[in-house]
Amino acid sequence: MHHGRMKMHLLAASACVLSMALPAPALASASASPLGAHAVQVARASHSEWKFMRTAGGLGQALIATGKLAQARGQDVATRRFGKAVAQESAAMLRELSLLSLLTQVPLPSRPNRQERKALRELKQLSTGAFDRAVGKHAGELLQRLVALLEQESAAGKDQALRALAREYLPALRDRLGEARSLADPATQP
Fold first, then answer.
1. CA separation, residue 111 to residues 38, 105, 179 (Å)
2. Helix axes 128-156 and 47-73, enclosed angle (nearest 10)
3. How far, CA to CA in Å, does 7 sit from each of 10, 83, 100?
4. Which of 105, 112, 143, 156 has the most CB atoms less than 10 A away?
5. Which residues, 6+ apart, have CB-to-CB distance to 190 below 8 Å?
6. How far apart are CA 168 and CA 89, in angstroms?
7. What is the mean pLDDT of the chain?
8. Which of 189, 185, 88, 72 is nearest to 136 (CA)?
């Protein structure tokens, strides 16, 4: 297939997926084109949008890895349940962010950064008894950063789709932050 036509077909397929996954306002850039009604113009992300997407993507990757580790190594049922929930919610957020990255051509991180990988290695070395509190503390730090980032984007972000994404995931991630704090300091549990 001709390279240009292949790119058009890929863009059309991406637009169809986006049209099913994103709310109508997020597709406000749809335009008439040779690809038909489902074509979406690729928009360049501003510096702040680029930074938000990359940071949220990196934190999401770190939370997925931390959640999976908590599921696998958690001694307490609450730790394993927390790990599953945080991994699932972070993965869902990353799926939506990935769709938006197709439109803006912002490459998202495919794994946690070097610092987070080091922290995960350190968590793996902990004894079973110390692990649950430590993973709660680490996940809490990640969640605190992500919640703050999403709050800022939902309040002051210029891109409607990114604001909507931030608003959608904030309630669940705030809940997870509370759970992480409880794991890190069991004395704070209700």
1. 31, 18, 24
2. 160
3. 5, 39, 18
4. 143
5. none
6. 11
7. 82
8. 185
Supply angle C-alpha 76, 77, 78, rounded to 5: 90
Q: What is the pTM of this model?
A: 0.77
Identify the residue whose tokens are 């510096």. 47
Q: 25: exposed, middle or buried (C-beta count within 10 Å: 0-12, 13-18, 19+)?
A: exposed
* Residue 32 to residue 39: CA distance in whole angstroms: 7
The closest alpha carbon to 129, from 56, 60, 79, belongs to: 79
Ordered DSSP codes for the chain? --HHHHHHHHHHHHHHHHHHHS-GGGGTTB---TT-TT-B---PPPHHHHHHHHHHHHHHHHHHHHHHHHHHH-SSHHHHHHHHHHHHHHHHHHHHHHHHHHHHT-PPPSS--HHHHHHHHHHHHS-HHHHHHHHHHHHHHHHHHHHHHHHHHHHH-S-HHHHHHHHHHHHHHHHHHHHHHHHH-GGG--
The tokens describing 7, both together, are: 């790119």
State how far the Cα of 41 lies from the Cα of 33, in Å rounded to an integer.
Answer: 9
- Closest to 97 measured CA to CA, from 84, 85, 110: 110
* 132-164 pLDDT, tens digit each: 999 999 999 999 999 999 999 999 999 999 999
